[in-house]
Amino acid sequence: MPKVKKKKNSNYIKNKSAKKEGIFNFNEQVVENNKKTKTASKKKNTKKVIDNEDHFIGTKELPPINKKKLEKIKRQKIKEKRTKEKELYQIQKRQEELRKKRAKKNKKARLTEKQIKRNKRIKLILKIFILITVLLGIAIYFILSPIFNIKNITVEGNAQISSEQIISLSKIQKDMNLFKVSNKDTINYIKENPYIKKVEIKRILPGTIKINIEERVVSFMLVYGSSYAYIDTQGYILEISANIKEGIPKITGYTTSEEEINSGSRLNDDDLDKLNDVLKIMSEAKKNEINALITTINVEDKNNYSLYLESEQKTVYLGDSSMLDTKMPYVKIILDKEKDHAGEIFVNMDLNEKNPFFREKV
Predict the structure, then answer these.
(1) What is the average pLDDT across 172-198?
(2) Is this model's pTM higher than 0.85 or not?
(3) Which sign, positive or negative, has the C-alpha torsion 264, 265, 269, 272?
């Protein structure tokens, strides 16, 4: 069936033809005016809505601004910010500590066995040092307590100096602490007495001081004006006295000046050398049992020492201190032979060439 073409609206055709011909169409103008009116109305309504939005949200009016509340909100925000910063700092600090611990652990892991042993040894030494310090403190506190106050002072070895004198010289007093006594000072104090040769201090717990003394012994005496200066074998001047002590040999011809002769001082070097020779002479005399007979030794001439035996009324000329082991037996023989005669014995020659002899006093 053939298609039937629809007929176009007659008005449409007319309008079209009118357009072509430039003829005004009233109906089309009305439609255009209506469209413009609707568009303008729409724009007006839109503007009104926009103006209303400045004063309303929906249908409600905005409340007035609360400044206190706004300040509170600001402070709260600042506080929250600081709290967060603090938390962040704590986190960073913990992370740093963990990092240090890990670094320390790694460093320790890198230490050699030798370093580890050395560190252990140092720690052990420190512990021992601390322990010793603590124990020392306890010991000092205990030592200085009244338990160790001096109750007794004893003196031994003294013969010429009394115990009271020695205790007085020592400056030790009862009720002093036993460990506060200085041995060095005490010894020096006691040695101020020339007769004291050696001192030893002993502490006997809990409260006794024991003083051991070694005294010097008078061996010779020097004629000192109208008095006598007593000396020991080392040339120390122990005492100056006007009283003469029996049985002590005199030494004459010494060179020590009177100003140098004081209690506690010593002979000069020249006299000390001569004293050594005198000791040799007395030793050989003792061997021959004639030392007790010697009353005076003259040391003025070192090359010709002389002895005076008062009980025998004889003078012995020895010469120097050489060959005493040969000379002294000759002296002994002559003394026995010439017992009842006063005179002089000469052994001061060269015994290889000459013989000793005795010259009787006329």
Answers:
(1) 91
(2) no
(3) negative
